[in-house]
Write a structure and sequence with these properties.
mainly beta, Methylamine Dehydrogenase, Chain H, Immunoglobulin-like, 2 domains, four-stranded antiparallel sheet, 35 strands, 0% helix
């Protein structure tokens, strides 16, 4: 059974990490950081206002790191205090630490530290990286834009390109040892790549029913989990040869997944944190809580070609109006204009009859408005 473990925020969570069954952190937009010491039964708000945090790593119950726009923060006391660390990337998308000293952060490059983040060495630059995995101090992989996969066997001092077989962005990567690894491919249908020889060759295992995989985690060479935008959590017990997909409609997109010996956690939009036991049979439908505050999500995909989806959380009943405008402020179309009850809502927008350009969409509920912009590219 999947249990929704938080009603503290409706912000998007991007990543989650656990050092063991009890101690973990979830991070997301608007500086959101939540911390648990009891497997998610209770969460403590440790948020830092400002940046969207896209990456998180923890090596034990005291040491954790979060990454965002041009910043890296670290804690050595379980999050009681967070210190900004030198060397932040333009965009820190992911992080991994193999102990309290050795770690890597990826974004618009790769940074490496050997002292817990007190200082950082730039190892790569000029490419957008979205995922990183290290099995020990020497062996690691980074994945990113245009299907790039790079591999190191010397702590990141040198990197070797590997052939992914795709030009689609790779959003996450997981390795259980120096041979066995998996990577999420953002093309549609959503593909998971697998290697059994350290990345010398990669092959496609599956497509997740036209969904784009965003996160992946394995506990050993057989048992793994993957999540997608918008609504699939997939589970394998044979190393990815076959996947069992669950359609769980609690948010508009799952963003990250973490596993420990006994538990699995999934995060996504609308402040979603789900947990289940890391077993072979406990994969039934989840329960969840209704939204606690009004929140308009960024449309997905964005930029988009003709079609996109706009999502919002509605904590109270009321008259809802969702309207699209062009750059001059002229109304293009009204997507919603009706009374709605509390829910997590998703609306499709078809811009096939419109010209390339910037458009705005505005949500108005009981006189309260939120707006965002989107880019149509043909």
């Amino acid at each position: 059974m999947w249990l929704n473990q938080t009603g503290l925020t409706s912000n998007v969570f991007y990543k989650i990490a656990f050092s063991d069954d009890n101690n973990g952190w979830a991070v997301g937009e608007r500086g959101t950081i939540l911390h648990t010491t009891n497997g998610g039964n209770n969460w403590q708000d440790q948020s830092l206002l400002g940046n969207d945090f896209k990456g998180v790593a923890c090596s034990d119950s005291n040491h954790a790191w979060v990454t965002g726009n041009n910043c890296i923060y670290g804690t050595t006391n379980g999050g009681s205090s967070w210190n900004i660390l030198p060397g932040g990337l333009v965009s820190g998308n992911a992080a991994t630490f193999i102990d309290s000293n050795y770690g890597w952060v990826v974004g618009s490059g790769v940074l490496h530290t050997t002292n817990g983040g007190a200082s950082w060495l730039s190892q790569l630059s000029g490419t957008a990286f979205y995922g990183v995995a290290f099995t020990d101090r020497n062996h690691g992989w980074v994945v990113g834009y245009n299907g790039v996969i790079l591999h190191t066997t010397d702590e990141g001092n040198t990197w070797t390109a590997q052939t992914s077989g795709t030009t689609a962005s790779l959003t996450d990567v997981a390795f259980t040892d120096t041979s066995n690894g998996w990577a999420c491919c953002e093309d549609l249908p959503g593909t998971i790549l697998h290697t059994t020889n350290g990345g010398n060759t990669w092959f496609s295992q599956t497509n997740l029913n036209t969904r784009a995989p965003t996160g992946i985690s394995f506990t050993d060479n057989l048992h793994g989990w993957a999540v997608t935008v918008p609504d699939i959590i997939a589970h394998t017990i044979d190393g990815g040869t076959t996947w069992t997909s669950q359609y769980i409609n609690v948010c508009t997109g799952f963003k990250g997944v973490a596993t420990s010996r006994n538990s699995v956690w999934v995060v996504g939009t609308f402040g979603t944190i789900l947990r289940t036991q890391n077993t072979l049979t406990d994969v039934s439908e989840n329960s969840y809580q209704l939204p606690t505050e009004l929140h308009l999500q960024q449309n997905y995909p964005n930029p988009f070609n003709s079609k996109t989806e706009i999502s919002y959380s509605l904590p109270t009943s009321g008259k809802v109006n969702l309207t699209v405008f062009d750059l001059m402020g002229r109304k293009v179309t009204t997507l919603v204009n009706e009374f709605q009850t509390p829910n997590q809502c998703r609306v499709s927008f078809d811009g096939s009859g419109l010209a390339t350009g910037v458009y705005f969409y505005r949500l108005n509920v009981n006189g309260i408005s939120e707006s965002k912009k989107m880019m149509l590219i043909k």
